[in-house]
Amino acid sequence: MSTMSDDDLDGDRLREYCGVFGIFDHPEATVLTALGLHALQHRGQEAAGIVAFDGKRFNSERRLGLVGDHFSHEATIKRLPGNSAIGHVRYATTGETILRNVQPLFAELNTGGFAIGHNGNLTNAHTLRRDLIEEGAIFQSTSDTEVILHLVARSRKTRLVERFIEALRSIEGAYALVVLSNKKLIGARDPLGIRPLVIGELDGKYILASETCALDIIGARFVRDVENGEVVIISEEGLESVKPFPSQPMRPCIFEYIYFARPDSIVHGRPVYEVRKAMGAELARERRIEADVVVPVPDSGVPAALGYARESGIPFELGIIRNHYVGRTFIQPTQTVREIGVRLKHSANRSVVAGKRVILIDDSIVRGTTSVKIVQMMRDAGAREVHFLISSPPITNPDYYGIDTPQKEKLLAATHTLEEMRQYIGSDSLAFLSIDGIYRAMGEDKRDPVRPQFTDHCFTGDYPTTLTDVTEERVRTQLSLLAEAS
Q1: For the chain, give me the number of helices (H) and strands (E)?
Q2: Of the listed 18, 213, 253, 458, which one is catalytic?
């Protein structure tokens, strides 16, 4: 078994992409935006930003770190006056995590100020970027979101909304966008609706957010989802809807339900918590094991483990206790710390697992490094058998739509057979939920191979859009990076 650093353990998860929030014409716009971002913190923990408009000028505050570390201070809020605001939490999928990449991005156009926040990833951003640079554009960040800003700036259309829509026609991939101008709050989703975006209402004022949990935290009412391929324009006149793309069936990202969305969110009418329990129940129907306890890998495996336990009749127990107060290792990664490894974040509940046949439930396996440690932890705590069950199919393909997956050769399921994976992890058995099983948990009979109901390329290799940057040799060049002091 190879030696693993703490960074290996931290990196052995699917990383959330980003979260966006916007509110129009509310006297407490900045405070509400900060609260909304706090609820969306699970979608990105590396940086956060807010841009507010006070009727005369745009005010921006962008910071590295967590929302609560910066936007809970009265002095910060006072620097962001305005009745309209947009905010963004970020995990870097394209571009380094440096301050100039933190969103919302802002530019002064001939139509006025333009601030933009983006959840997702463009699959032709590098191609467009190269073309724009050849035409004289000057980029300040390495974020693909800045490509949209340049496309809007270069449009010859008269109205801002028309310029924005023209820019959308040039981009590929996944996006949920919030835009703040002098007079409007604009939201948009990609034509397949891969990334989520919802409309809420508070005190008669409209809100845009990545998830319903951001509405709940401020007591806002859920109005509806922004539809796939829809652009919504919020102004003093109310809410206007424009659908500039040909109609096609929606294909939302299935990982919203498996992992990314907060359990208390409702995504496209489906309560995420209930869907995850249903995935566990489907797993129990597909893989019955004689065992004494069902133990979730916290926190990601908890709902699926509840569903498995209920369906199988095997008791659910908290056999692993998570330490919620440890982020990255707070002391130097000496050999001693490396050997402690995952125990800094998870501890075995010995009284629950000693002498027991244990079923471990988790939502996914990426590289498998953490899974090795968790299984060994169970054995060290005296477990008689350890069976590892995953409430989603094997991840065999990388993502290009905003999920930070490793390259294909670093995905355990892409390079190992099921038996090889079991041996590597060290469990007595290993099983994954089937493709059709996860679709049944979503309320479908099975996956439609002609028109899949969800974006599921990490399992199937069926990418729903063109991947220009992956196939275009001419854009495979390293972006220059300017070092910045934070």
Answers
A1: 19, 21
A2: 18
Rounded CA-CA distance 30/52 in Å is 7
Q: Which residues neighbour 216 within 8 Å (Cβ) at sequence distance 6 or greater?
A: 39, 264
Q: What angle do CA 167, 168, 171 make, to 5 degrees?
A: 95
Residues in the chain: 486
Give the residue-averaged pLDDT of 152-169.
Answer: 96
Contact status, residue 456 vs residue 107, Cβ threshold 8 Å: no
Residue 485: the pLDDT is 39
Q: How confident is the model at residue 334 (pLDDT cuts 50, 70, 90)?
A: low
Bridge partners for 173 per DSSP: 122
Written as six digits, the tokens of 196 are: 């989520």
Half-sphere exposure of 376 (CA within 13 A, CB side): 15
Each residue of 256-310: pLDDT tens digit? 999 999 999 999 999 999 999 999 999 999 999 999 999 999 989 999 999 999 9
Quick one: tokens of 451? Answer: 């028109």
Q: Which two tokens stand for residue 361?
A: 């439930």
- Global pTM reads 0.90
Contact 16, 260 (CB under 8 A): yes
More confident residue, 406 or 329: 406
Q: To which H or E segment does residue 270 belong?
A: strand 270-271
Separation of alpha carbons 120 and 197, rounded Å: 11
Checking if the pLDDT of 205 tops 60, the result is yes
Q: How confident is the model at residue 313 (pLDDT cuts 50, 70, 90)?
A: very high
Terminal alpha carbon distance of the chain: 38
CA distances, 469 to each of 42, 152, 173, 409 (Å): 28, 21, 10, 19
Rounded distance, CA 135 to CA 147, Å?
Answer: 13
Q: Which phi-psi region, left, alpha or beta, contains residue 426 (left: φ > 0; alpha: ψ -120 to 50)?
A: left
Q: Measure the CA–CA gap between 274 and 114, rounded to whole angstroms.
A: 39
**d(C-alpha 69, C-alpha 73), whole Å:** 8
Tokens of 9: 């353990």
Rounded average pLDDT over 403-416: 88
What per-residue confidence (pLDDT) applies to 13?
Answer: 59
CA distance 28 to 34: 10
Pairing of strands 205-209, 198-202: antiparallel
Mean pLDDT across 450-459: 96
pLDDT for 474 equals 41
Question: Active-site residue 213, yes or no?
Answer: no
CA max distance for the chain: 73
Q: How many CB atoms lie within 10 A of CB 446?
A: 12
Tokens at residue 47, please? Answer: 């940086």
Closest by CA to 388, choosing from 396, 399, 377, 397, is 377
